[in-house]
Design goal:
Family: Belongs to the HsdR family.
Mean pLDDT: 81
Enzyme class: hydrolase
Strand order of the largest sheet: 15-16-14-17-18-13-19
Number of strands: 26
Shape: globular
GO molecular function: ATP binding; DNA binding; nucleic acid conformation isomerase activity; type I site-specific deoxyribonuclease activity
Low-confidence stretches: 487-495, 787-793, 805-820
EC number: 3.1.21.3
Number of helices: 40
Number of domains: 6
Domain Helicase ATP-binding: 305-463
């Protein structure tokens, strides 16, 4: 099969073409743009209406002609307003595509039919989800879509039954940050409401950014750090993927095999999508590979248990932060669809988790989850359990007076199954549901000292550990550092020494009694003097390391008494606003006799405050907790956990995971600051787990300094062979675009590494070089890239260095994007006396101008491009004879900027006429004849362009096409050129008139 891709183009050869070839092997039909456009009436249309109508007829044979037309009309693009948020529109359309039946616009499409018993509403099917091969799968590349100005050409678009479900942007693997470029320069641009490509995202299922070696998937509106890997193609093995793509699989091949398998694609569309509102913004989420994998395995296990009677479903361990609640929700959804809607019971051991899971299910639109509010409520729910999804805590089963029981075959999902599942409550739960099948979900590794979790719940179904999670970008690495270890008295010997000095007059029995009663780890931790000293250090650390980048903090206190002391001391120090969230009672007092009423919160208020804290606009910066919010509390804006509580094993791993959630591009790690010496016992604590399972759980912060040294060397290596003070040498050094791209990538890595260390003194040796590198970067960006490049993309600590240094060195004039324009560029270039530097700059600017303006007059700028490329080749051959190359490049640049003067010289009043003339003249070969034909075409089509909305009207396009055809054939243009000329003239009309 022949694919219409650019030859000798790295992006096409290494990413686009392999993707097309693999998709065809997977059963997709390839259509080139030329073939696809034969059935498109308008380049603004995103649906393939002929294929969509065919699918409606095929999947709904009972519909009459009016019903088919009505269904087609109700799903067409014009029915969905552009002023809605993309995610809102996308959610409404998905509901219609998959046949949801909910309120609020999430209803299926129905048409009125009469089958002999009067009018009735019939739900329209747009896909056959049960038989994937019964659908129409098309893949095309360079799909043209016209906007308000220029068209776009997404690299690959996948259509199923005429709907554009998937868009793929391909980049060359050699360019810096290819995935980031695909997302920021393509996907985010395409979604800009002002550009007019909205319709493409009305129907979109997900987006893929790839360069072959790297591949990420995301949804509409997602930022760069929200795109994720699909790192394996379960249930396909790597060997099967290799056979499918006929090469050693890269990330691109694994993602395509895993997500774009026909059955998987439809399954993901129907069963693995949810929309959540976060900080007043609707977010679309689809399953990650580990969630899809785990649910698929659990469904398979349940199918197996139909034959093998057992209550042991299996164990799923997915590390904290990897979306375990959504995995449970999607598993429950599959149970409804594939197992006849059996009763489902979701069990936790904490009220907070119970509430959180219920909220997740409700927000995601799961139908009618019910949380048991009391023992009697649970008893009544299970008495008639059929079809119900019930949330409860395990403690409700263990009350001796309860009569909870059901003989139904219940599917039980037990959250955090490593806790409380082996004692009285667990026994009572199993007695209450004797025919249940139990699946265990846990966010921490299984204790290797005994495998009780597996004995109770069955085999390990799926594991998603720390290292895999970090590699996928689902979670961040967690660094730890110890601070003020002398503040904590640890170990019996130390306490004995203190007693010998302080209580020298007491006998041994009295000292032992006193020690056991009063000198405990908790008592020491509560000492006000100790907490005061910690708060001094904590405030300094937070305000210098964390707050500048806009992140928040949590403090874990050893007791409620200690939490109150922390709050008081932080307030005395005028620290950033803090808040306590803990249980307390009105009228309760501390050891000092002072009431805690000012810190009292009702359960509802605690939930409200914990939710408000997640919002960057909420003034509270530091949250003080004791036991609450250490499990299941997702708060990505928190970067640091100040730990002053002795935690062990599972509790330790769950607590530190509060800081591992991705938030924005500048949050590259979470941090644990240890004030109680717990990290001294860290290896001992982790030793209870399998070594492979806890690999990568925590990393010492010293690693960040090693990273900074490496990134520093990479950036400064650019200047080893040139005079660092010579701007001319710098301009010549970075003349190749590849050199500029690589330097930009290395500079960003240096910036990120420095941000992780600042403001520690260890960063000092690198600051001067960073300031120098930032100045060089601005210099080359200003002259080579031009205006409009944003500098606001780094952590605030690093950004302050850049800002201060730029002002200090007096180059703010150079960096003002309003001052350097295409037309005054040459006067700025004159500042460089070095001929090579000036030549490099004007050559690059000529290339930049031609690239930007070529869409408005392709023929004119194509000639200039040919002149430029020829001159570049000549320069390469005569490198030492450069005296006249500056003038030659300057001449091309001036011609590129003076297109209007050339147009007026030829007598054309509009850019459209000049551009059309450029297309006709080479074919006609007669200047005057080409002018006359141009004038005739303009005269014929101008009246149509006066109509409102003509660019999107198929009737206008037909009339104009006919008029252009008549003019061209009357003037004897070759028949084999006419169709292509009509297309080009129409494109120019839509762009320029």
């Amino acid at each position: 099969m022949t694919f219409d891709v650019k030859e000798n183009n790295e992006e096409a050869v290494k990413s686009e073409l392999p993707a097309l070839e693999q998709l065809v092997r997977m059963g997709y039909q390839y259509l080139s743009q030329r073939d696809l456009n034969k059935t498109r009436k308008d380049y603004r249309q995103v649906l393939l209406y002929d294929r969509l109508e065919k699918a409606i007829r095929k999947l709904n044979p009972e519909l009459d002609e009016d019903g088919v037309k009505d269904a087609l009309h109700k799903i067409e693009e014009e029915n969905f307003p552009h002023n809605l948020d993309h995610a809102d529109t996308n959610e409404k359309i998905r509901a219609k595509l998959v046949g949801l039946s909910r309120s609020g616009g999430l209803e299926p499409i129905t048409v009125t039919q009469n089958f002999g018993n009067g009018p009735e509403e019939k739900t329209v099917r747009f896909f056959d989800f049960d038989n994937p091969e019964n659908n129409d799968f098309i893949v095309t590349n360079q799909f043209q879509l016209d906007g308000y100005k220029q068209p776009i050409f997404p690299d690959i678009v996948i259509f199923v039954n005429g709907f554009p479900l998937v868009i793929i942007e391909c980049k060359a693997p050699s360019i810096p940050s290819p995935i980031e470029q695909a997302i920021t320069k393509n996907f985010q641009k395409y979604q800009d409401r002002e550009l007019g490509y909205d319709r493409l995202f009305f129907y979109n299922h997900f987006l893929i950014a790839t360069c072959g070696t790297l591949a990420r998937h995301g949804t509409i509106g997602a930022s760069v750090n929200q795109y994720a890997r699909w790192s394996e193609s379960y249930p396909l093995t790597p060997e099967k993927v290799q056979k499918l793509c006929e090469r050693t699989p890269r990330e691109q091949e694994f993602l395509i095999a895993g997500m774009l398998d026909k059955a998987h694609l439809l399954d993901l569309l129907k069963n693995y999508v949810t929309y959540e509102v976060i900080n007043s913004k609707k977010i679309k989420k689809i399953a990650k590979h580990q969630q899809y994998r785990a649910v698929t395995k659990a469904v398979g296990r349940l199918n197996h248990l139909k034959e093998d009677i057992s209550d042991k479903g299996g164990v799923i361990w997915h590390t904290q932060g990897s979306g375990k609640s959504l995995t449970m929700m999607w598993f429950a959804t599959q149970l409804m669809h594939k197992f006849g809607n059996p009763p489902i019971v979701i069990v936790t051991d904490r009220k907070q988790l119970d509430e959180q899971i219920e909220k997740t299910f409700k927000v995601c639109g799961f139908p009618d989850p019910i949380r048991a509010k009391s023992i009697r409520h649970l008893e009544s729910l299970l008495k008639s359990a059929k079809g119900k999804t019930v949330m409860t805590t395990i403690q409700k089963f263990g009350t001796s007076s309860s009569h909870i029981h059901t003989d139904e075959k219940v599917i039980v999902l037990v959250d955090e199954a490593h806790r409380t599942q082996y004692k009285f409550n667990a026994e009572a739960m199993r007695s209450a549901m004797p025919n249940a099948v139990f699946f265990a979900f846990t966010g921490t590794p299984i204790d290797k000292r005994n495998k009780s979790t597996y004995r109770v719940f069955g085999p390990a179904l799926d594991k998603y550990g720390f290292e895999e999670s970090k590699a996928d970008g689902a979670t961040l690495k967690i660094l730890y550092e110890e601070r003020l270890p002398e503040l904590f008295v640890e170990g019996g010997a130390t306490i004995d020494q203190i007693f010998e000095r302080v209580f020298i007059d007491l006998d041994e029995k009295a000292k032992d009694r006193l020690k056991k009663q009063y000198v405990t780890r908790e008592k020491i931790a509560e000492a006000p003097a100790r907490i005061k000293r910690i708060c001094l250090d904590l405030v300094k650390h937070y305000t210098t390391h964390i707050l500048p980048n806009g992140y928040k903090a949590m403090v874990v206190a050893s007791s409620r008494e200690a939490a109150v002391t922390y709050k008081k001391e932080l307030d005395k120090l005028n620290a950033p606003p803090s808040k306590i969230i803990m249980t307390s009672q009105l009228g309760e007092k501390g050891k000092d006799g002072i009431s805690w009423d000012q810190y009292y919160l009702t359960p509802e208020q605690r939930e409200q405050e914990s939710e408000k804290f997640k919002d960057p606009g909420d003034p509270t910066k530091i949250l003080i907790v004791v036991d609450m919010l250490l499990v299941g509390y997702d708060v990505p804006i928190v970067q640091v956990l100040y730990l002053d509580k002795g935690l062990r094993e599972h509790n330790l791993l769950q607590a530190i995971a509060r800081v591992n959630r991705p938030y924005d591009a500048n949050k590259t790690y979470g941090l644990i600051v240890d004030y109680c010496g717990i990290t001294k016992e860290l290896q001992k604590a982790l030793a209870v787990f399998e070594e492979e399972d806890v690999k990568g759980a925590l990393e010492p912060s010293e690693k960040e300094l090693e990273e900074l040294r490496l990134r520093h060397l990479e950036v400064m290596s650019y200047f080893t062979e040139i005079d660092k003070k010579d701007d001319n040498a710098i301009i010549v050094k970075f003349e190749p675009a590849a050199a500029r791209d690589k330097f930009e990538y290395d500079f960003k890595a240096f910036s990120s590494a420095l941000d992780a260390i600042l403001p520690k003194k260890e960063a000092d040796p690198f600051i001067d070089d960073f300031k120098y590198a930032s100045k060089v970067r601005q210099l080359i960006r200003t002259y080579y890239e031009g205006a409009g490049t944003s500098l606001r993309e780094y952590g605030k600590k690093v950004q302050q260095l850049i800002d201060d240094h730029i002002r200090a060195t007096g180059i703010s004039e150079l960096l003002d994007p309003r001052e350097i324009t295409y037309h005054n560029f040459l006067s700025y270039v004159a500042k460089f006396k070095n001929e090579r530097a000036r030549t490099a700059l004007v050559k690059n600017k000529a290339r930049q101008v031609i690239e930007e303006f070529s869409a408005y007059n392709p023929a004119y700028y194509e000639k200039l491009r040919e002149r430029l490329e020829k001159l570049i080749q000549e320069e390469a051959l005569r490198r030492k004879e450069m005296a006249n190359f500056f003038d030659l490049y300057k001449e091309i640049l001036e011609d590129a900027l003076n297109e209007e003067q050339e147009r007026k010289k030829l007598g054309f009043s509009t850019p459209f006429e000049f551009a059309v003339y450029g297309e006709l003249q080479p074919i006609k070969g007669d200047d005057e004849a080409a002018k006359q034909v141009t004038a005739a075409i303009y005269k014929q089509i101008e009246p149509e362009t006066e109509l409102v909305g003509w660019k999107s009207k198929s009737s206008s396009e037909r009339l104009m096409s006919a008029a252009i055809y008549d003019v061209l054939t009357d003037n004897k243009f070759p028949e084999d050129k006419v169709d292509e000329l009509i297309r080009k003239v129409l494109e120019l009309a839509k762009r320029l008139l």
